């Protein structure tokens, strides 16, 4: 019964397997060729990692891994027979491809649209949907748009991934009573292996069926998952393990700032100051980073994605400091017109910090 709907055109899975589709848009053609390979029982697929913490790389993923992942998601949400799905993520990457795989495995009606910040503006969409995956930016735009908000409210289960959702976004989802989950996963685990229901501001992740987790001596997550090729995957994600199946995500160990012998986790500082930044500057993108310092080793700085603006930096730093322990307080504020991003739209912290340092060196 499954089918893929693109604008006003509908293809049954049988037609796609036989190559009976005619699309002029390269994006749709590429997605349908992937579906044709899947429906023809291809056993391995080459995927590219997102590159959020280093250079993107191509890896081989087995069909069985993707099948296991799709089944685990279906079991977790208890998806009904022949569901309706919206695929609005980039199908060049794992998150988008897995929406197609889920739809094919579940014999779903898959509404396929070009990835954009406002997916509900695409023509001929039929709601409601049983499952939709989005990145935080898409959700933010939908919440601020009448058509987008109406679309969000017609989703039975919304999963959000690709980057953590900020407190502001979470509060908006709670205010609008959107049924949403933050995901945790990676290309190597073919999409998510844990989900955090967004029921309050403090997220707790629960692993999918069959996933085993623990921490190493640094407090970083390791996992064993039936959808992963490696027996055990060691991550650089610092977590607080609540139980054998639940955890809280604290940040990346490879982004940790060592200032005066105190280890500072940028993501936690960002969470603490987000509200104040939004109140004073507006809803800008920003990150906390560490740069070399003669006395401290590294010092904490705030980088804002914006051209220079009139701002009393000394006063603003004092206001930020009132929300933070001494060594977590930013010592400087810098502006960049544009952050460096990965192909999937995530902020590349390491490259952005390198860009800032390069700019500072050339101007000194």
From TrEMBL:
Coiled coil: none annotated. PROSITE patterns: PTX_1. Gene3D superfamilies: 3.30.300.30, N-terminal domain of ligase-like. The keyword Ligase applies. Residues 49-195 form the AMP-dependent synthetase/ligase domain. GO terms for biological process: fatty acid metabolic process. Keywords: Ligase. One of its GO terms (molecular function) is medium-chain fatty acid-CoA ligase activity. Belongs to the ATP-dependent AMP-binding enzyme family. This is O-succinylbenzoic acid--CoA ligase. The lineage of its organism: Bacteria, Pseudomonadati, Bacteroidota, Cytophagia, Cytophagales.
């Amino acid at each position: 019964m499954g089918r893929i709907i693109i604008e006003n055109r509908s293809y049954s899975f049988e037609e796609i397997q036989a190559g009976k589709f005619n699309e002029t848009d390269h994006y749709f053609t590429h997605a349908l060729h992937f579906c044709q390979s899947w429906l023809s029982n291809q056993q391995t697929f080459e995927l590219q990692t997102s590159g959020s913490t280093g250079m993107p790389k191509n890896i081989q993923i087995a069909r069985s891994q993707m099948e296991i992942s799709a089944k685990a998601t279906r079991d977790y949400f208890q998806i009904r027979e022949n569901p309706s799905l919206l695929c609005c993520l980039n199908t060049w990457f794992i998150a988008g491809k897995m929406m197609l795989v889920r739809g094919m495995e579940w014999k779903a009606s898959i509404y396929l649209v070009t990835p954009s910040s406002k997916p509900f503006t695409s023509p001929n969409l039929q709601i409601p949907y049983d499952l939709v995956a989005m990145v935080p930016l898409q959700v933010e735009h939908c919440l601020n748009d009448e058509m987008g908000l109406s679309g969000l409210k017609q989703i039975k289960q919304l999963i959000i991934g690709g980057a953590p959702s900020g407190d502001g976004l979470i509060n908006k989802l709670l205010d609008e009573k959107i049924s949403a989950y933050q995901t945790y996963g990676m290309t190597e685990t073919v999409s998510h292996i844990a989900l955090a229901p967004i029921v309050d501001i403090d997220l707790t992740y629960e692993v999918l069926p069959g996933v085993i987790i623990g921490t190493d001596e640094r407090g970083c997550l390791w996992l064993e998952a039936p959808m992963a090729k490696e027996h055990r995957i060691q991550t650089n994600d610092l977590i607080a393990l609540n139980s054998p199946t639940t955890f809280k995500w604290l940040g990346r160990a490879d982004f940790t700032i060592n200032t005066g012998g105190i280890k500072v986790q940028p993501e936690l500082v960002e969470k603490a100051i987000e509200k104040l930044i939004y109140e004073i500057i507006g809803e800008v993108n920003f990150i906390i980073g560490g740069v070399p310092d003669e006395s401290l080793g590294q010092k904490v700085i705030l980088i804002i994605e914006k051209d220079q603006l009139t701002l009393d930096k000394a006063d603003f730093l004092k206001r930020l400091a009132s929300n933070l322990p001494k060594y977590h307080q930013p010592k400087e504020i810098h502006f960049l017109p544009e952050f460096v991003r990965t192909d999937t739209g995530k902020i590349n912290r390491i490259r952005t910090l390198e860009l800032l340092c390069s700019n500072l060196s050339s101007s000194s």
